[in-house]
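Comment thread on ticket #2218

A.B. wrote:
> Attaching the input chain for the structure job we discussed in standup.
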Amino acid sequence: MSPGSNSVTVSVSGDRGDGSVVVPLVAHAARRLEFNGAIAVPLIAVGIVLALGLFTIVGATVRESVLPPGAEPDAHRRRRARFAMARAVVLVALAITGTAAWWRAEDADFVRRLYRPMTARAAIDTSTGQPQLTLTITDSAWVHRNDGTWLRARRIAEQSPLIEDHGKLVHLFMISEDERSAFAHLHPGTVDTVTFAAPLPNVPAGRYTVFADIVQASGLTQTLTAAVSVPVRAHVRSDALGPDDSWALGRNVAGSAAGDDTRSVLDDGTVLTWKRSTAPLVAGNEASLRFAATLPAGDTASLEPFLGMAGHAVVVRDDGQVFIHLHPLGTISLAAQARLARSSPNVMSHAMRTTLEPNDSLSFPYAFPQPGTYTVWVQVKRRGRVLTGSFPAEVHASPTLRR
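C.D. wrote:
> Ran it. Output below, let me know if you need it in another format.
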């Protein structure tokens, strides 16, 4: 399977007919499987027995194969047989040594090509007078991506360029260190696709984790991570941010719908309600991330598509070890989906949802991968304004995993 956009096609046949479903898959090699050491001893023993058998066959062939039945080989034939067996030993040793060297080289090359997230650095730049959040990709393979000589010398595969995903080259999320106090969704610009910059929103001072989603032309999606400190609140003009950029305070700061973890009051008075069941959330089980918007009294303006989607959601665990950017279509990026559709003409590409579900509701397919305390940030758009709500979530371990 080649790295990048792939798909798994599942065909089903039954009493009601035949059908198939195509599951988009972004694939890459992430780890090297280790050889089971317990199997090594019996394999070596079998190899020694086979080698001794081979040498015996070679010796017998030279020493006795042309003799009449019952005749004994003379000293000359015995000497020739010993030389033939010695040559066989040398040839087998050379074959084993050469194969081992080839395997080590292939293994080392595979390890070099294993997927590793690009390294990045975030900083606050005040040199222009307008505080900016900058994200710089520091990964040497990316910085030297146009230097063929440098790449060949290190046997590093050429990097494919970045492509836009629903209209943006980078989707950058700036989340407070506790993952719940403050949140920003920005779309920085760049001139060299190495350093990206966006106006710093009016988030409170403190430590933040930066997550940046990018998509390469191969269909490979990555999330870059970095940390940054905001020394003081920026007090940036509201019109300094891009039209699709936004920031918000979490419920523990803003006090939204205190005491009710399923309701979040947005900045324009809209109430976003998480239509979840009373059953506990369990890791590995499908989570009902379904939300409904209740508009302010007397306001008839419905929700609008945001970046071509009914809404966006970010799920982050409080220790920052789990992060996902969700769409109503799932986790696959639209750019990767389009790449898959081009490479596989028989695969029907899903149309981008630009309409909301009935009654201003939206849902996201998801299963929490691990237990822990999470915050679910949900973004919608109304009257041209991006609005953000937050919902705490406690996810329990699966009973089967506990056993």
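A.B. wrote:
> Thanks. Noting for the ticket: The longest strand covers residues 385-396.
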